[in-house]
Amino acid sequence: MTPITLIALLIGVPAFLLLTYVFIHGSAGLRHYILTRVGLTLPMVFILATLVFFVMRVLPGDPVSSALGPKGTPEMLARIRTQLGLNDPLIVQYSRFLGDMVTLHFGNSLMGGHRPIVDEMSERFPATLELVIPASIFALVIGIWGGTLAASRRKRATDYALRIYSVIIYSLPIFWLGLMLQLLFGVQLNILPISGRIDPVIGTTIKHITNLYAVDALITGNWPAFGSVAQHLVLPTITLGLILSGVFVRMTRINVIETLQADYIAAARARGIREHVLVFGHALKNAMIPVITLIGLQVAILLAGAVLTETVFSWPGMGSYLVERISSRDYTAVQSVITVFALLVALISLAVDVVYSLVDPRVRY
Amino acid sequence: MKSQKWFLLTSFLIMASMILGACGQVTPTAAPTTAPVQTEAPVATEAPTEAPTEAPAGTPADTIIIGTTDKIASFDPADAYSARDWELIKNINEGLLKWKPGTSDELMPALAAGMPEISADGLTYTFTLRDGIKFGDGTDLTAQIYADSINRLLTVGPTCPNGVADALATPYLASVEAPDSKTIVFTLKAPVAYFLQILASATYTPANPNNFPADKCELFPAAPIYGTGPWFISQYTQGEQIVLEPNPYYTGTLPAQVKRIIVRDFADPQTEALAIQNGEIDIAWRFLGPELFAQLQSVAGITASTINGGSIRYLILNHTKAPADDPNVVKAIASAVDRNEIADTVFGGQVNPIYSMVPPGFLGASESFDTMYASPNLDKAKEYLAASGYTEANPLQLEMWYPPEHYGAATAAWMQVIQKQMEATGAIKVTLQSQEWSTYVAALTGGEAYAVGVLGWFYDYPDPSNYLDPFVYNGGLGTNVSLAKEGTDYGEPINDKAQQLLDLMTQADIETDLTKRADLYKQVQDIYADLVVTVPLFLNPEYMVFRDNIHGSDHYATPETLNIAGTIEFNYSTLTKTP
Amino acid sequence: MARRWYGADWWFVTISAVMVLGFIIVAMFPGLFAPHSPDDLVGPRFLAPGAHPDLPALILPSDSPDNELIDLAVPSDQPRPIVAVVQGVPTSGALNEQAQVIDNQIKNEPGGLRLRPRIERYATLEEALQAVVNGKATAAVVQSLEFEAISAQFPTLREGASITGERSTAGGFFLGTNDIGQDVLSRLLWGTRIALIIGFSSSLVALFLGVPLGLFAGFVGGSLDRSLSLVMDSLYAFPGLILAIAITAVLGPSMLNIIVAIAVLYIPTYYRIVRGQTLSVKEEVYVEAAKSIGARNLEILQKYIFPNVIPSVAIIFSVNVADAILTGAGLSFLGLGLPPTIADWGIDLARGQRFIQTAWWMITFPGLAIMLVVLAFSMMGEGLTEIFNPKLRER
Fold it and tell me: Which of C268, C237, C258, C233 is nearest to C327 (CA)?
């Protein structure tokens, strides 16, 4: 039972049930919309994967000569390339690739130990999740609260302060923020670790069930491990979360301002409802709808930010995996990662749109 | 309204998980071997609360923990071809011969009862096995098992993924036989002067038939993995750690001295450096860079030392591509380079310059480049350049290529220093070009692309031939000093001197008298320097950091003498620990 | 719209415009501002900001008549002077350089004097100085402060002139030096040029491709619009950095390729906004009126739609430049962008990461520079948004 399978089952099954519910109870228009989107998503992902396939093979250099370096005699190189199927005609390689993609098999890495890509992703993907989820929560909390506050105190000091905050945060290069935090907390003050997911000694006591170390530690009651994971999570989460919060503050602010200008808000204000209740109770709820859509679309930013954060903190996630493997021309790994990313982004945006349509009665498909 | 909120939340969560579900619907593939969770958690140290100047002790008294960032690619001797793999294999297994610990030129019998009988024509080597050798699981080692293992190397080896170990067998061996239970006979295709050195490598250790199937490669067999050496692998988790325990049946000269060795994998050198400072590991070995090393030197409680392994850096010149096809130009480059300045500016003096491709300490090593060029000698460099018409008014346009990451991030820095040195002649204008490793090596070894590039080299077996042959024979790795000639091993030399070089080298390859051989190699190195086939720069140092209560590793920590034993021959058995 | 120009938003735009102008000037004439060349190894390694570099000085026996390096010159038939240096300290480089310079000056003069010192390297400072005391070396070249610290142990030696004279402190090292002795400040200022070139070029390319596409698609509509929108939407949704990584990996590391990669990322942004605006303006009554009096499509596009699109495009442009600079720095940081010897902020940050424990100034200042430039452009965009966005107007 690989970790990915476990996570997938735990949430995939209820997800499937929910989708069925939506299908049955949703309007005909919604069903049509979902089908259209799914119908469009798959070809898009397919085209992207194909593009990556051909592009990687057009690139000069290949994994075999990269690995053997100057020690590879031409005979050795030729032999290993044939073994790995790299000398087969392009069409053969391509059909093999298609077969792999369709069965979600992804093949074996072309590097070193030739591990199945699925195994490597089983380790890397949860690592990225473990970084991205707390960071998003952090960013959402700060973003929504801050944005709403700024909108409610418009044109006053708080508003400008928060707008300046949001612009400054947005301008910070994420990798620089990470480095500065490392410098301050890791090097000068020496109170937090600056790389890795967990202390290496404690790390040997973790049972790999889901590969989300925090969850695994909780399940097995391994408190030292949980503490270590939490410690290691602090700086990367702040880095990624802070940068995202800048974007969220801005978006929330704009949406709440617009909502606050609606007539019903003016009416409620006239009726004497307190500003505080007005903003956080009424306006925010309705402003949330487009905000959530936009947040869903920020997945792209999240993944990009994750790549840089993972590099700075030596976090063994999908982002750093991609960067490593591009350099060594590990075709199968790169293809698989980009395909997975594309799939992820497409599915999440579909999900967000569906949710949006269910929640906002004004949306008709 | 409230139900809608919950609905929103749950549906969001669930949609996200659907994606994971899509990724997760995979046919379960063979998961890598997982080790059972350790029953006792190792002594955990507190997180560092202040800058560690005095490092606290933290590991159990009978265990030595070694930290490394180098990854294992394979346990199979028929397949493994990297320094890390070989280091591990040499600790759990012994071959017929081995290097005397701490030396680079003394071979002694290990599994063999004595040195071999070599036939007069140099084609037959006969060994007698020592009595009472068993693998760690109790299986007896017979001559037949050993011969089968080598035959496995010849037959199965070429099908293995890393499968270049057969580069050490197929070109040399005609056959290997076990006429009786104690005798092993090697028959070579042609006489070769360094066959004994090759026999001492990890490739020629017997693969335990219970761990490694006879008909295919097994890169990561299930633990426990047994060999004939002082240790065996009791458990391992890929990417995390390997646990070694003493082999109860070992009868050799290097018995284990602690109860357990754990080799722990780190993702990056900074974490490894922190770990040695905090006492989480006892030894930090590969790949700390020069920066971390410099830092660790000032921490109390640990010793940081440089080991000069057999790894070198050099400029590689393509002698059929302008401007490196001009002998004056290459001599000018050899005269203008200042190795000491590179050492001082980029490495704080912590690397040793080399003046020949054969590093000091190897048989016949000389300092031919220093004798011939005494660089930096800018006057001479200018003379050479002027002889080809390059002056300040008409400078030589030189492109120098390098891979920015593969040889360490400092590469860009020392290439800039070299650029400065070339331009100090006043008659050269250098353009530095970097190219990502995969593209770079493909272009370079294809012999086409770059006139001047940078490469590193590491030996397969400790012999001067391994540092000279690849750069001269048959197209020579892109130097093109002897252009590849179809169907031969030697290629066509581009001029008389190159022909002379080839002749001397062929002679040296089969000369068995050590003094004569050393002399031949001295002559070879002189011509090599005259032709400037490549420009040797410096020895790439390996860094070892160990806590002060670890002993026995002093052997490998003397920077003044070359001790190549440190890199491939790291014998864990010599390590001890005082409380 | 006129009244929007008075108020705090006006400050936002003005301050940021001034900053942007400042950066552009620095980018156009970095040589005027930078004290050194960004590539030259001008100083000692790892010099902290504000610290004074320890100059290499000539150490001589107290009774020697020589004082400066040139005094060591001898006729070419006499044995060359031996100079002791310490291993690991880059004084030999400076010594060689200076000796070369002096030698070139004097070799053609009558008297036949040449300066070609033989350099002997010693493991420690004490050994090098001892060699001078013992007469094995004519002189030593060591760091002057280090010598002064132990000069009491060597009473028979005295310090002569500095080898390099005033030259190496000319300009100073205001922000310190990096791992091989290049001036951080100079690299910073020259890096502005690269950052702005990347930022402007990629945004302009994206603009010139995205805007016409958006106008066209929005105006004409139909299946072309749908398919184009599909492509653009998928491009937009895809993680930008990863796409840029993939493109630079294909094309290879160079400035042009980064510009292309980043431009591709931003085309959809222009496309979507312009298309949206075109769609809404298309429905306006005055456009319909224009059509009814026989205006041709091109005219409608030019006279009615395009002018309405300009304010949004301006906002997007400034935000895009900011983002492009960030992405470019990110790519260089990952090592997938420019060649690693160019004076670029991202590259300097990647380099500085390796020395985070010893040289904090190597990462602090380049990052600060990126932040300020991006801030300037973002603020401008932010301010312009407030001004131009009708939905945010006060009632």
Answer: C258
The model's pLDDT over C235-270, given as tens digits with 9 standing for 90+, comes to 777 777 887 887 777 677 788 888 998 998 889 889
Residues linked to residue A273 through DSSP beta bridges, in sequence order: none
If one counts every other C-beta atom within 10 angstroms of the C-beta of residue B53, the result is 10
CB C365 within 8 A of CB C192: no
Determine the longest span between alpha carbons in chain A, in angstroms: 86
User: Is the CB of B386 inside 8 Å of chain C's CB atoms?
Assistant: no
- Quick: pLDDT tens for B1-39: 343 344 344 444 444 433 333 332 222 332 222 322 233
**Residue C179: which of B340, B344, B413 has the nearest Cβ?**
B413
Measured CA to CA, the distance from residue B170 to residue B155 in angstroms comes to: 9
**Is B415's Cβ below 8 Å from some Cβ in C?**
yes
CB contact at 8 A, B355 and B367 = yes
DSSP tag of A201 = H
Determine phi and psi for B557, rounding to 5 degrees.
-125, 35
The answer to whether A324 and B281 have CB atoms below 8 angstroms apart is no
Contact residues, chain B, for A343 at CB < 8 Å:
19, 22-23
Q: Are A252 and A287 in contact (CB under 8 A)?
A: yes
Alpha helix stretches (DSSP H) within B424-513: 437-445, 465-472, 496-510
Q: What is the model's pLDDT at position B179?
A: 93
Identify the burial level of B215 via C-beta atoms within 10 angstroms of its C-beta, where 0-12 means exposed, 13-18 middle and 19 or more buried: exposed
Residues with Cβ within 8 Å of residue C378, at least 6 apart in sequence:
A167, A170, A171, C16, C318, C319, C322
Contacts of B106 (CB under 8 A, 6+ apart): B99, B100
CB of B93 within 8 A of CB of B83? no
Residues of A in Cβ contact (< 8 Å) with C383: none
Prediction pTM value: 0.79
Distance CA C169, CA C94 (A): 13
Q: Do A327 and B436 touch (CB under 8 A)?
A: yes
From the list A94, A48, A140, the residue with the least C-alpha distance to A340 is: A48
Q: How far is Cα A226 from Cα A154, in angstroms, rounded to an integer?
A: 42
Query: Is the backbone of residue A52 left (phi > 0), alpha (psi -120 to 50) or beta?
Result: alpha
CA A179 to chain centre: 21
Asked if C298 is an interface residue toward chain A (Cβ–Cβ < 8 A), one would say no
Chain mean pLDDT for chain C: 82
3 state SS of C300:
helix
Percentage, residues of chain B above pLDDT 70? 84
Distance CA B290, CA B312 (A): 15
Residue B425, Cα to own-chain centre: how many angstroms?
Answer: 35
Q: pLDDT tens digits, residue range B254-304? A: 888 889 999 988 877 877 887 888 788 888 888 787 778 888 888 888 888
- Rounded to whole angstroms, the Cα distance separating B66 from C180 reads 32
Closest CA to B303 of B569, B19, B543: B543
| Four-residue CA torsion sign, A67, A70, A73, A78 | positive
Residues of A in contact with C392 (CB under 8 A): 254, 257-258
> What's the rounded Cα separation, in Å, for the pair C102 and C166?
16
Report whether A340 contacts C232 (CB < 8 A): no
Q: Using DSSP bridges, classify how beta strands B352-353 and B482-483 pair: parallel, antiparallel or unpaired.
A: unpaired
State whether residue A66 sits within 8 Å of chain C by CB: no
d(CA C388, CA C393) in angstroms, rounded, equals 9
Q: Name the strand (E) or helix (H) holding C192.
A: helix C184-220
What is this model's ipTM?
A: 0.81
Residue B31 backbone phi and psi in degrees, to 5: -75, 145
Query: How many Å apart are CA A228 and CA C178, to the nearest integer?
Result: 34
Find the helix or strand (DSSP H, E) in which B335 lies.
helix B327-336
> Which of the four pLDDT bands, split at 50, 70 and 90, describes residue B326?
very high
Distance separating alpha carbons of residues B415 and B314, to the nearest angstrom: 11
